[in-house]
Amino acid sequence: MRLMISAEFLLGDGCFSLKISGHAEYASCGSDIVCAAVSGIFYALLGYAANECERLHIKNISSGIADIEVSADGEEAMKLAYIGFLQIAASYPGTVSVKESVWGFKVNSPLCACR
Predict the structure, then answer these.
(1) pLDDT tens per residue, range 39-67
(2) Of 15, 16, 26, 37, whose CB neighbour count within 10 A is largest?
(3) Backbone CA torsion sign across 6, 111, 68, 33
(4) Looking at the whole model, is its pTM more than 0.85?
């Protein structure tokens, strides 16, 4: 069974949370462009939240795991990360699973031919 990255966006108690776990295993460690893309989006979100949001709570960041909460003023940044993850999932099927119960956007096909 192939592993994949799981990203879950939730809204509760006036803040947004993002939980990411797993590895894409699209390529070998250090060469995996899917993991790199997800990490890049996540770290951009983290930097934005640290500098622009009223509240950022980091619950866990370690290899293959990220769990953060961002105040409601970070909603647009969370949406951007969500759509970015959907684009990666559409471009590289079977590598990223994106779950959310907040916005309901759908991406049926990637916007660019990344391969």
Answers:
(1) 999 999 999 999 999 999 999 999 889 99
(2) 16
(3) positive
(4) yes
Confirm if 55 and 71 have CB atoms less than 8 A apart.
yes
pLDDT higher than threshold 60 for residue 113: no
Helix axes 33-52, 75-91, angle to 10 degrees: 180
CA nearest to 93, candidates 107, 79, 103: 107
| DSSP run (H or E) holding 37 | helix 33-52
CA distance 45 to 15: 14
Mean of the per-residue pLDDT values of the chain: 89
Amino acid at 78: M
| Helix/strand/coil (H/E/C) assignment for every residue in 42-95 | HHHHHHHHHHHCCCEEEEEEECCEEEEEEEHHHHHHHHHHHHHHHHHHHHCCCC
